[in-house]
Design brief:
By secondary structure, the protein is mainly α. The protein contains 20 helices and 11 strands. The strands form 5 sheets. A 3-stranded antiparallel beta sheet has the order 3-4-7. Strands 1-2 form a two-stranded parallel ribbon. A hairpin with a 3-residue loop joins β5 and β6. It binds glutamic acid (GLU). Glutamic acid binds next to loops.
């Protein structure tokens, strides 16, 4: 294996997802670390699409993967759309390359044709289960005679190509885990090419990592056990040990319940977070903390700090736990850090999608006044439409749930007083509105502020959750505010 301490190769890192669904938290954490490592070292970040599984990969998922990386700002130096000297970067366009290597492995004796049927393999597995021995191919077709092969062919059997694992073991140094050894008793001969000629992951990934001159494979821990098989493919390709990639297997990302987060769970898909108004910089900041830390208990990391500080040595080997509350808190921080214009630009798609505004100049002008008063108060952009809807609705209605809170006689009385006293307010601004309501409702009527202002809030905004009341009324204007108060009475 190359020795990391003296490895002088220019760094080349790849992110190689299999788009059989939307990219999820675990994929993106890997992509982020790959990207950060490449940027930190001044190396090359390669984006490769592992789309050999025709039944499960779709063009939509491939496009979504590309869009997600772009949205997050994880730009790549070689890969789809940008090309590069080692392409194509979609495995489905590299099928001939895999077929050529498989043929060479057969010719050189590293691999062999295996004619075992699915039933026969199942019978072997069953026997192994009964005998309580490690499961795996039993080597039945390793050394078939010419007559046996002829008989299988005559029988119409189509062979798979299987890699011959030698006796012994494979040892490599994982940059996170240290020295790892796999005894080949637990690494049985594995399939490289299916009977229909399609390559398996282990063949394609290893061939591509070599041909794309990848120096560092940073990927999820779930792939640790495939490493000895990939190293066997390098050996069959005749790659010198010093040219193997170095491996770093990133710790698992667990759910809150300590079960492994998985692709099959919709809530882990990055698209889900995007739709709910999480900012890409918040997602990257939060995911950076899943298994890595910038030190000093810091939780606020910008993309430029990440590329500056990221080293594999700082990646932990213990599993990281996904914490939604923390992600929300970071998202709120990143929203507060946006400039007013940026907050407007990012909120606008959500306001349009929620049918709150269409984007007319009048609406934009009002939004420019309204957004600053809620910027401190939202954790996600998806909360913005509900907060500001009251300013734009034409047929205003109080939410049913809130209506019940102001339908008693006491509320009616206080709304009546509020309406009358506000009518004579000369300057319609939040200071004036607050002074009038405090005098009339709190001082003179002796009401608790929470009760009094909540009733006014519901009457004017239609909901018991809104931006600050007096500012909201100023923005809404005298006419609409008084009309709504009067209607609610
Ligand atoms: N395509 C593989 C996957 O998405 C990962 C390949 C690798 O990183 O080695 O699971």
């Amino acid at each position: 294996m190359p020795n990391s301490a003296v490895d002088t190769r220019p760094v080349r890192v790849r992110f190689a997802p299999s788009p059989t669904g939307d990219l999820h938290v675990g994929n993106i954490r890997t992509a982020l670390f790959d990207w950060a490592y490449a940027r930190h070292t001044g190396g090359t970040f390669i984006f490769r699409i592992e789309d050999t599984d025709k039944d499960r990969v779709t063009d939509e998922y491939i496009q979504a993967a590309i869009d997600t990386l772009k949205w997050l700002g994880l730009t790549w130096d070689e890969g789809p759309e940008v090309g590069g000297p080692n392409g194509p970067y979609l495995q489905s366009q590299r099928m001939d390359i895999y077929a050529d290597w498989a043929k060479k492995f057969l010719d050189d004796g590293f691999a062999y044709h295996c004619y075992c049927s699915a039933d026969e393999l199942e019978a072997v597995r069953e026997a192994q289960r009964k005998a309580n021995v490690a499961p795996g191919y039993n080597g039945h077709c390793r050394s078939l005679s010419t007559e046996q092969i002829a008989a299988f062919v005559a029988d119409g059997r189509k062979p798979v190509v299987r890699m011959r694992m030698p006796d012994g073991s494979t040892t490599f140094t994982d940059l996170i885990r240290g020295e790892v050894t796999f005894d080949h008793n637990f690494v049985p001969d594995f399939v490289l090419v299916r009977a229909d000629g399609s390559p398996l992951y282990t063949l394609a990934v290893a061939v591509d990592d070599v041909m794309m001159k990848v120096t560092h494979v940073l990927r999820g821990e779930d792939l640790l056990s495939s490493t000895p098989r990939q190293i066997r493919v390098y050996q069959a390709m005749g790659v010198a040990e010093a040219d193997y990639p170095l491996f770093a297997h990133l710790p698992f990302v667990m759910g809150q319940d300590n079960a492994k987060l998985s692709k099959r769970n919709g809530e882990v898909s990055i698209a889900w977070y995007r739709e709910r108004g999480f900012l890409p910089e918040a997602i990257c900041n939060y995911l950076a903390l899943l298994g890595w830390s910038p030190g000093e208990d810091r939780e606020d990391v910008s993309m430029s700090e990440l590329t500056e500080l990221f080293t594999v040595e700082r990646v932990h080997s213990s599993p990281a736990r996904f914490d939604m509350k923390k992600l929300e808190a970071i998202n709120g921080d990143k929203i507060r850090a946006l400039s007013p214009d940026e907050f407007l630009n990012r909120s606008l798609p959500f306001l349009k999608e929620g049918n709150v505004v269409t984007g007319t100049p009048e609406e934009i002008a009002l939004l420019k006044r309204a957004l600053p008063i809620i910027q401190e108060r939202v954790a996600t952009l998806a909360e913005v439409p509900a907060m500001l809807k009251f300013l734009f609705v034409t047929n205003f209605e109080v939410e049913a749930e809130s209506l019940s809170k102001i339908s008693d006689a006491d509320s009616k009385k206080l709304l009546q007083v509020a309406y009358e006293r506000l009518q004579s307010l000369s300057q319609w601004n939040h200071e004036g509105i607050e002074a009038v309501l405090r005098t009339a409702l709190i001082e003179e009527m002796g009401l608790k502020p929470r009760i009094a202002f909540s009733a006014v809030r519901i009457a004017v905004t239609g909901s018991h959750i809104s931006p600050p009341l007096f500012e909201s009324m100023e923005l809404l204007g005298r006419e609409s505010s008084l009309l709504r108060l009067n209607n609610s009475i």
